Automatic annotation (TrEMBL):
It comes from the Bacteria. It comes from Streptomyces griseoluteus. Keywords: Oxidoreductase. One of its GO terms (molecular function) is oxidoreductase activity. One of its GO terms (cellular component) is cytoplasm. This is FAD-binding oxidoreductase. Pfam families: DAO (PF01266). Residues 28-392 form the FAD dependent oxidoreductase domain.
Length: 411
C-alpha cells in the first residue's frame, strides 16, 4: 500500500516556480530538491553561483521533506550528555551550537524572504518513564546549563504544568527546553526553493539522475532520463537514495521508514515532546491538530533497512504501525481519548552508524560534495549546514560545519 500524502502536501502552497528544460552545462549542480538541496541552492544563489537544481519530482518537497513532522528542534541526534561522552565536549557543543544558529537562520530567512512557514514556537519536553533515561536527561540538563544553554529537569508535576494536560503516573519527568520551532514543511521548503529561484537558481524538475562520473577534463557528467549535464561541481542531496550515485557511501546509509499520524484539532495547546529516547514523539500544528510519530521498534526488522522504492517518494505504508501510533496518543495524553486520527503517512529517512549526517567534500573526488543522511533529524541542521557548505563550495572556509559531519570519517 502506498502512503497517502502528508498534511503538508495536501494543504501546502503549490509550486509555481516552474521547471527549466535540462541544460547541457552547469557551474554547480545540486541533485535533490528536498529541504537540503533547496536550502543549499538558496545560499549558493545568494552568493552568486546560480546553481542548477534537479529533482525527479515535479515540485520541491515531495520527498521526506514534505512528509516529516516539521520540527526544527535544537540539539543533535543524541542528548547532550551522552553526545559529550561519545564525541568529546568540543564536538558535541559545536553540533548543539550549530542547531541554535540554525533556529535563528530559519527565523531570519523566512522573515527576509516573506515565506509563510506557519511557524510555531513552544517548549520541548523529553519525557521518560525509565530511571536510566531520567539520569541521562538530568545529566543533560546540567551539561546544557554549564554550556549556557537553557534547559532544566522537571519532575512529573512540573512536566504536567508545562503540558497543561494530564500525564500518566508512570512518567518520571522530563528535560525541558524552551524556544523550539516547528514549521509547515511544504510551505517552508517551497518558500526557500522559490527564494532560491528569485536569487538566480534554476530548477529542472521531473528529471531522474541515473549516473555520475568524472570526465577526463575534470568536470562531472551526470546522466539523467532527460539527457546528460556536465557540471564543474556536483552536490548529492538525495536522502536515502544518495548511495545510488555515490556507491562508496551505500554501506553507511540505512534507509528507515518513518510514519506519522495527525488528529483532528484539539482545544488545548501542548509543547513538542518525545518519550523513550524519542522513539515516540509528537507536537501540535498551528491549526491545533496533533502529530505523533515513531514507535519503530514495536515492529522490528520492518522499518529499518527497508527496501527503497526506485521511483517513489515513500516506502510501503504500514496500517498496523499507524494503528499503534493512534492508540499510543491517548495512553500518554488522556485528554485525547476520542479525538479522531484524520490522516497517516510515511516517508524515508537515511541513518548513518553514528547518527551524524554526511556533509562536505567527497574525499579524493574534487568538485563532488554530499549533503545527506540526516538520520531523521534534518530540519535542525538544514539552514546552517547549507549556509556553510555553500561557503565551502564557493572556496571559503565554511568553518561552522561541524567536523563530526565530515564524510571522510567513514573512509
Ligand atoms: C515521518 C517522518 C517524520 C520526520 N520528522 C522530522 C522532524 O520533525 N524534524 C526533522 O528534523 N526531521 C524529520 N524527519 C527527517 C527529515 O524529513 C529529513 O531529515 C529531511 O527531510 C531530509 O531532507 P533531504 O532533502 O535530504 O531529503 P528529501 O526531502 O527526501 O529530498 C531528497 C530529494 O531527492 C530526490 N531524488 C531522489 N533520488 C533522485 C534521483 N535519482 N534523481 C533525482 N532526484 C532524486 C527526491 O525526489 C527528493 O525530492 C522526518 C522524516 C520522516 C519520514
Amino acid at each position: 500500500m502506498r502512503s497517502p500524502d502528508s498534511c503538508w502536501l495536501v494543504s501546502g502552497p503549490r509550486w509555481t516556480g516552474g521547471s527549466t528544460p535540462l541544460p547541457g552545462r552547469a557551474g554547480v549542480l545540486v541533485l535533490g530538491a528536498g529541504v537540503m538541496g533547496s536550502t543549499l541552492a538558496y545560499w549558493l544563489a545568494r552568493a552568486g553561483h546560480a546553481p542548477l537544481v534537479l529533482d525527479r519530482n515535479d515540485s520541491p518537497a515531495e520527498g521526506s521533506s514534505g512528509r516529516n513532522a516539521g520540527r526544527v528542534i535544537q540539539g543533535g541526534n543524541a542528548q547532550h550528555a551522552p553526545a559529550i561522552e561519545r564525541f568529546g565536549h568540543g564536538q558535541a557543543l559545536a553540533v548543539y551550537r550549530a542547531t541554535l544558529v540554525n533556529r535563528d537562520l530559519v527565523r531570519e530567512v523566512t522573515a527576509r524572504e516573506g515565506i509563510e512557514a506557519h511557524r510555531t514556537t513552544t517548549a520541548k519536553l523529553d519525557l521518560t518513564d525509565s530511571e536510566d533515561e531520567a539520569l541521562e536527561l538530568k545529566r543533560t540538563a546540567d551539561a546544557l546549563s554549564a554550556d549556557g544553554i537553557a534547559a532544566e529537569w522537571l519532575d512529573l508535576p512540573g512536566a504536567r504544568r508545562v503540558f497543561g494536560t494530564d500525564l500518566p503516573d508512570t512518567v518520571l519527568g522530563g528535560l525541558h527546553r524552551p524556544d523550539q520551532d516547528a514549521v509547515h514543511s511544504v510551505g517552508y521548503v517551497r518558500g526557500i526553493a522559490d527564494a532560491a529561484r528569485r536569487h538566480g537558481a534554476t530548477f529542472s524538475l521531473g528529471v531522474t539522475a541515473t549516473s555520475l562520473e568524472r570526465t577526463e577534463e575534470g568536470a562531472w557528467r551526470v546522466g539523467t532520463d532527460a539527457g546528460e549535464v556536465l557540471a564543474d561541481q556536483v552536490v548529492v542531496a538525495l536522502n536515502a537514495w544518495t548511495g545510488r550515485l555515490l556507491p562508496e557511501l551505500d554501506a553507511r546509509i540505512t534507509p528507515v521508514r518513518g510514519q506519522l499520524v495527525q488528529t483532528a484539532p484539539v482545544p488545548f495547546r501542548i509543547p513538542q515532546w518525545g518519550l523513550d529516547r524519542g522513539l515516540v514523539y509528537g507536537g501540535q500544528n498551528q491549526d491545533g491538530s496533533l502529530l505523533l510519530g515513531g514507535l519503530r521498534t514495536t515492529v522490528p526488522n520492518r522499518d529499518e533497512n527497508i527496501e527503497l522504492p526506485a521511483d517513489a517518494n515513500t516506502p510501503a505504508f504500514s496500517p498496523e504501525l499507524a494503528d499503534r501510533l493512534a492508540t499510543a496518543l491517548p495512553a500518554l495524553l488522556p485528554e485525547t481519548a476520542g479525538v479522531p486520527v484524520v490522516r497517516a503517512w510515511s516517508g524515508v529517512m537515511a541513518f548513518t552508524p553514528d547518527r551524524c549526517p554526511l556533509v562536505g567534500a567527497m574525499p579524493g573526488r574534487p568538485g563532488l560534495w554530499v549533503m545527506a543522511a540526516f538520520s531523521g533529524h534534518g530540519m535542525p541542521y538544514s539552514q546552517v549546514v547549507a549556509h556553510q557548505l555553500a561557503e565551502r563550495i564557493g572556496g571559503g572556509a565554511g568553518a561552522g560545519l561541524p567536523a563530526a559531519f565530515d564524510p571522510a570519517r567513514f573512509r
